[in-house]
Amino acid sequence: MPVEFRSSPPARSRFAARVNHLRARGRHEHGRVTNVELFFDLVFVFAVTQLSHSLLAHLTPLGALQIAMLTVAVWWVWIYTAWVTNWLDPERTAVRLLLFALMVVGLVMSASIPKAFEERAWAFALAYVVSQVGRSAFMLWALRNHDQSNFQNFVRVITWQGAAALFWLAGASAQGQTRLILWAIALAVDTFAPIVGFYVPRLGRSSTTDWAVEGAHIAERCALFVIIALGESILVTGATFAGLAWTAEHIGAFLVAFAGSVAMWVIYFNIGAERGSRHIASSGDPGQLARNGYTYLHLLIIAGIIVAAVGDELVLHHPGGHTDLKTAIVLIGGPALYLLGNMLFKRLSAPNFPLSHMVGLGLLALLILTVPVLTPLLLSAATTAILILVAAWEQVSLRQSPHGKTAAHH
Question: Which pTM was predicted?
Answer without folding.
Answer: 0.90
